[in-house]
Every structure is written in structure tokens, then in C-alpha cells.
């Protein structure tokens, strides 16, 4: 049997509900998607509950499930994925925090939780922090810049714990918080002490930084603090290649998703111009995906723009993002060739009128070039998907891909 | 996001099969149900397997599942639910029995397992038992009157067990049985001894009761024994509020279901006139439900009449009960208002020609007032439900309700 390559395309937050200004169509239903609909001649479509019916997935838990790992067993919080996505190399036991460059006053009261959000000096500030604070109380400290104001903070050492509270007060006008242990272990107490000492040092370094003097001179809020939240302890996850046999690579510009993929041992590519936003360079991502297909069994192409538009309540941008996904898939197929199966779905619904993730099932399309019994539906959307033959959960996806790419191994004799 | 209230309506034993005298329609299909069908304009419908495909649920196991607790993990027998439903307050470790007032002869041979069934003096007999038998061998004993001939018996003390056999011979003409331990533990041996001693004392008290002298004078069978069966040890269950965030209340007149709801920490209301039978005061239940919706997130409205009619094989009564459920839902919505989601289903099928519970899937309707993609079917019944988009198990229900009432919390980031 001819083993086929696999293109897995996830439109983040793709799923939606009826939208009144789209004449009660969903964005996917409304969008012009000639490529996707042309695949329907040899596709099964249907609905997927990423985690389970009604359960509202995060992007991280959903992607874990889609890649075949039950999040109830393997999910350990977002922080370590974000750090991995920002470029950290983590070992089991490292504790990662999500962080924000922020502006605080002399009393450590938060004035701007994002220090203006676009921080040109972020890379340099991170470099300065790494130089001046290599360790605290024997614990190794590393800072990684994500996008905009986002910073990951990683602690490495023995006996660390993620059972510590945030220093981020999550509100402007409040003083930064002491991190406190949230269980009675010595390791939690120790970690909280490290975090509090680290916070003092960060303020000393940043408030004296030349880069912030420059920002102030330009009338910009100084990035003089890193607010820390969401401690998560890193554990090594099973690798996609080991549990599925698939050599996989990912194209994504979103730190969280990049981190999930790196955790699973996948190569991750973020081509220049890919932003994770509505302004991303879709064709650059398509070219990267087509390129990776040559050396990999599975290429995962992640598009964040659908979710970003949904959270902002921008219906037209969501429609446009879907139309660009359509062109992107077309570009990959044109570039790579058609001897490939394609699975297109969302990691969750983010109904654009709701502006938040929801637990609705998401539409799923599985194109297999030859011989399968096609569902023979004429459009791919949340409504037509109800008439399709697939009714699955996220954890089924890898098995489906293995089966229809002729790569599955028999279970039993 | 606007959090919606939740009305959960369960028609006990609602599900059915084709009935010949209804021209091969099911009772739900045959019934006139203008309110329910009017909800279809913005509803998803489908099928639910309360426990799993083909598994025949009891009402207790099914309700546990529908409320989100896996009965395989949490179900411990019916006795403690019945006792709770009859008004008992139980602590972990208490052992509850289902009991019948019965008539026995001088040799303790059962003459009438229900002592005539309608026992006017039941409340007073229970009072007399509680006064005269406060304890046996250091174990506290309490009796609670259910409906008609039904009595719950609760033992409280250290080292009790539910691994004991019934004293109820389950047959007229047989002598009452000695309770025997069904495992080798000392606690089972001790509990069986207590039950046997208790049975002697119950006979002494009841056979000498003035109330039974009066019954005999009136030509009625004396209620001179309590047959005990179905020992179950009580354990505290997780509370709905804790595991779902939902403040819930129930309207039911059925001891078993009231007990399940009380176990989950729900307020339970049985309005005057609610009987658990075909003669129940539906509108009183509707008013109670509408009233409870003001102070609760979820109101559970239980209607037993569908199941009662099914067990009796009374097709027309089942149809009539469904038509009354329709009016009841209409009354709740008229009284409370429409800013609410409604889930209507059964806890199992009791096909009226079978007269027993079956493991068929039950139809389920989920009405969400705005924005969802409606399944656009014109009638709600076992046949049309197969064309709907829902295919779930009981354990999915709470997650679905949380999602579509905008009350779910995201799992992950």
C-alpha cells in the first residue's frame, strides 16, 4: 500500500454559530472556499468534539488531544508550552511562568500591565535580564521573549514546584503580589521565595536599565517589571514519532502551539511574515508546509487568524481568514502535489458573537484522494457537517490519519 | 456573556418503541405537544444513551449520570437514596434498607407483602416504631415512611456493612428470612445480627400496636412486620455546586429521585398535589419550578407519570402524561420567561408494550434561545431524533448545559 503524506490544517477557533449579519450563516458557511469545497468530491466530513461534548477546550488541551495525547493525563498548565514556544529548552522539573513586561511605580503599584504592549526594546531587555540575573538562591533563571510584551520565565534547579501563586495582580492600580506557596511542601515554599527574590532583582535591573531611560525620554512607559503568572512544571511528553510512527513538523507563529508541538518532538517552523494574526503571510506558511512535506510524514499547519478575529468579534475578518486558509491549502496542494490526505478542522469553536471559546463541536473534513466513500456534500460548514459521516473526538484524529494514509498498524492479529 | 438559566426536564421512562395501537407511532410521536415542537425552531435534538448503548438504566443510575457522576464509580445501591427521599438525614457509613409494611401470620409466614398497600396508619406506625425501638445492640435505628406501604430503615453505628441479605422473602406464603452476612467480615456478621434482632422487635411492637387492632377490627390486614431488602451503605457524594458551579434545585415527588438530588446537595421541592403518578398536579410542579428558577442556576423537573403508565402498559396514559409534560414546560416558560435553555429527555426508555426499562437510547432536546444552528426538524420523537445532531451519553449532559448556558469554564488556555 502506498503510504500517503498527511497535511493537518487547524484553523484556531474555526467553529462558530449562526451570525445575524451573515444572514444566519456561520463564517465558514459564508466564506468563499473553492479549494476546500473541491476536496469534497473525495472527503468525509462531520463533527469533532475536541475534548468531549460541551467541554470548552483551550488551544493547548485541544491540540494535545488532536495529536493523540489525552490532556486529562498529560496537561500540566500553559506556562511550559509558552516557554517552549518562545524558544526555551526545558528539562523535566523546570518551572515556567508566563510573564508580562509591565510598568510599575516606585511603590510597585502596576500602572500598565503591558508597558504599552509594543515594546521595541523587549529582546534587549531580556538579554540584559539574562546577563544580570543568571541565578537566584542557587536556582538557574532564564528569560525568553515571546511576542510584544510577553516574556517566559524559567527556573531550573532541584526541588522546585509549580504550586506557587502569581506575582501578577491582574489589575492596574494594585501593588504586585508576593508569590505564596499553594501547598505545604518545602519545594513550594522555596520556589515562592525564589520568585519573590527574583521579582526584586528584576525591578532593580529594569528600573536602572538605559533602555528604559530611553523609553521614558521618548514618552513611553518604562518596562520596569516582569509580572509572573501561571507557574507550570515541565514534564517530558511522549514524542509523536514514538507513539504514532509519524515524523511530524509544524508551521505556526503562535507560541503556545509551537510549544505543544516542540513538546511532542516536532520540528517547528515560523516563516518570516507569519504573525499569528490576521496580517500573517499565508503564502509563506503554505510554502513552508509544502517544503516540510518532502521530509516529513505529517505536516501540521496552524492558522491563528480565525481565533484572533473571533475574540475581537470581527466577523468579516474571520470570513476573510477562512478564505485565506482555503487559498493556503490550495497553495500547499499545488506546490506539493495531490498524493496526500488532508484533514482540516478547528481546535475549538470561538463563536464570533460570543468572543470566547465554546464547547460546541467543530466541523472536520478528511480528504483522501482515492477510493473512499465520499459523503458527497456540496459545502463544508458547521451545518452540512451534521450530515457527514464523521462524529469523533480529538483523540481519534491520529488514528484516522494513520488509517487513511495507509500507515496504521493492526491492533491484534 | 449573558449566563442563562437552565431548565432540565426528565420524563421518567419517556423513551419508547413503535406501538401498534398508535399506528406504529411511539407515544412521544403520537402525543400533541405544541410547546415542545415550538422550541424546535432553535433546538438541537438527538439521542442519548443514559449509561451506554444497550445498557438498561435504573432511574437512580441514570440520574446520577445525567447529573455528571459516573454511576460505575458512585452508585452504591438504591436504599440510601430512598431513605434520603423519605426524609432521612444520612451520614457516611449508615446502612439503609428499603422496607415494606407487610402482614405475617404467627409463624412469620408472609400473607400480604404490602399489608393492603394503602395504609392510613403508616405515619403513626412509623412513629411508634421510632419511639419503641431507638436502638438495637448499640446501633441506632430510624424508620421513615415513604409512600403507601413503603418504609426506609436506617442503621447508624460503627462497623456496619451492607453485605447482608434481605429478610424479605419476596414471595407470599414464605416465612420471613434470616438476614445473613454475604461476606466474611465481622461488620457484615454484626449487621445481620442487628437486622434479625430488629425484625423480632418490629414484630413485637407492631403485632401489639393499637393501630393494628383497629385495622383488624375494620377487616384490614394488620401491618405487623417490616420486610427489609436492598441494604446499601451511604457515602457522601460530590455536590453539584462543587463540581459544576451550578446552584441546582429539583421538583420531584418520587422518593428515589428526591434522594439522588438530595445526595448531590440540591434543594428538593414536592409541591402539594404532586404525587409521582398519573394524577399528579402538573401545574403545581410547573409553578414550583418557575419559582425555583429565580434563585437557582439549574432547576430539574422530574415527571414520573410517563414511567408509571409504561410499567402498567397504559398507552393512552403515557400519551396523556407526555401531553401534560408539554403543558408543564409551557407553563414554566410562560411564568419564568424565555431567557433560559431547556433540556428535555428521559432517564431511560420504558417501552409501554414491554412494561419494563430498556436500554434503547432516549430522545433528547436542547433548546437554546439564540444563535445556535437549529436542527430544523418539525417534530420531537424517537424517530426524528435520529436525524438530529446530538449523540451523547448521560455523562455529557452537564457539560452541554454549562456550554450552552454560557457557564462553562475553559479547560486549558
Q: Can you tell me about this structure?
A:
Two copies of one chain form a homodimer. With 413 residues, the first copy, chain A, is an alpha/beta fold. Chain A has two domains: 5-76 and 237-404, Alkaline Phosphatase, subunit A; 87-233, no CATH class. Chain A has helices at 27-30, 34-39, 59-66, 71-74, 79-85, 122-132, 186-207, 210-217, 240-244, 255-263, 282-295, 305-311, 315-336, 397-404, and strands spanning 5-11, 43-49, 95-104, 110-112, 135-136, 139-145, 150-156, 225-233, 248-251, 267-269, 298-303, 340-346, 362-367, 390-393. In chain A, the strands form two sheets. An eight-stranded mixed β-sheet of chain A has the order 10-9-11-1-12-13-2-14, sandwiched between helices. In chain A, strands 3, 4, 5, 6, 7 and 8 form a six-stranded antiparallel β-sheet that branches. The two termini of chain A are 18 Å apart. In chain A, 57% of the residues are buried. Chain A binds chain B through residues 17-19, 26, 47, 51-62, 71, 75, 78, 230, 256, 351, 353-354, 356-361, 382-383, 386, 391, and chain B through 1, 371-373, 375, 389, 391-392, 396, 398-404, 406, 408-413. Chains A, B: This is 2,3-bisphosphoglycerate-independent phosphoglycerate mutase. Chains A, B: Its EC number is 5.4.2.12.
